[in-house]
Amino acid sequence: MTRTLITGGLVITAAEEMHADVLVENGRVEAVATPGSQQWTADRVIDASQKYVIPGGVDAHTHMELPFGGTFASDTFETGTKAAAWGGTTTIIDFAVQSKGAALRSGLDAWHAKADGNCAIDYAFHMIVSDVNDSTLKEMDGLVAEGVTSFKLFMAYPGVFYSDDGQILRAMQRAGDNGGLIMMHAENGIAIDVLVQQALARGETDPRYHGEVRKALLEAEATHRAIKLAQVAGAPLYVVHVSAQEALTELARARHDGLPVFGETCPQYLFLSTDNLAEPDFGGAKYVCSTPLRPREHQAALWRGLRTNDLQVVSTDHCPFCFSGQKELGRGDFSKIPNGMPGVENRMDLLHQAVIDGHISRRRWIEIACATPARMFGLYPKKGTIAPGCDADIVIYDPHAEQTISAATHHMNVDYSAYEGTQVTGRVETVLSRGELVITDREFTGHAGHGAYTPRGTCQYLH
Ligand code: URP
Ligand code: ZN
Ligand code: ZN
Ligand code: ZN
């Protein structure tokens, strides 16, 4: 077994920063020590001086190969996890999908069939529940026991993934009993569908109307309702892809009242806005996702929420569709544009830029991108930190390198970048996944099939 020594870097975890040498053996961190203090021998020495040594990113929200909007998300588990590695992410939690009328089990089996043997980094699953009924509720217990400990429900997308309030309440009650965590897509989809039809009837077909009909108030209303339902059920709640200031206000109020309510936002809501949705020549379609991008004013509230811990996690909601042939399905009708944006490769860099810009501290960067997502979804301390015994998922990060984000150089299987031309300071140099070099000095040295399915424990903020 290879022994790897990483010397002279600044090790950053959510808890501390220290100049230290890190010894890796048998895929795990063996020891962390003051630089030069130990006479360690190793087969491989990585010089990390002038660099950061950080835990691999944990992206708790991706959709590889998702069938959605009449097509499939364009990254496979292979292309998407390779791109994730390039961007310094070493674990993804993707969403297996229950088809209406089918069992959770068959959805989970189908997602294993897509992912197993194909991932370059480690992966785990949440379960999208699109049909809450007696047998699904029973199945949830078994899934929690085997390591699928979180369930996404939708207040949006009537006729597709939508659950009504009674179904949501029942699923929450079950999660309250079995230790599962309900993840909520909080938008009032019934009201939004009325506004969609009214907009189309007025001839408002451009991508920017996607942002206008999916109102911030309807995100806030659904967030409020989800919180109250969870309170009634006695269950914890994790609200995904929070984009509206008004929704964040609902979360903050619940948290200040001491409720076990958590919130995630995504880089697109922190860095992009309705200005992008208004780009000409149907260009706004590249930015169609739900919840939608908001006017720029919402960004300051989201950054504040990340600093005050009213928001705890930044995930990507990576769900790429090519502009050509996929986003184009919605020319002349914004409601037919497949919802979702690429970003799994960009998250760690964009959040490092946020450190440089003064929005968050270095340790908070690691907390929201690595440690907290691992804890939230029962993967800590195996994932999300650098300490003896944890998986050697480690990124050597050059905080001074300059790069320009572009589709011409990214590795995601999608024909545009949502951040095209954005200059960021900081770049991933080398990535280890369980001690194996996946990226070596900006060369891909990993392989599909290295990534292991990783069953999870329950949310670690509840006990
Ligand atoms: O637009 C999005 N977010 N697409 C992916 C599915 C979801 O709702 O997370
Ligand atoms: Zn969603
Ligand atoms: Zn999603
Ligand atoms: Zn391998």
TrEMBL record:
Cofactor: Zn(2+)
Residues the record lists as N6-carboxylysine modifications: K152
Post-translational note: Carbamylation allows a single lysine to coordinate two divalent metal cations.
Stretches that traverse the bilayer: none
One Pfam family of this chain: Amidohydro_1
Keyword Hydrolase among record annotations: yes
Record carries keyword Hydrolase: yes
Top-level lineage group: Bacteria
Keyword terms: Hydrolase, Metal-binding
GO cellular component: cytosol
Coiled-coil annotated residue ranges, if any: none
Family: Belongs to the metallo-dependent hydrolases superfamily. Hydantoinase/dihydropyrimidinase family.
The protein, known as: D-hydantoinase
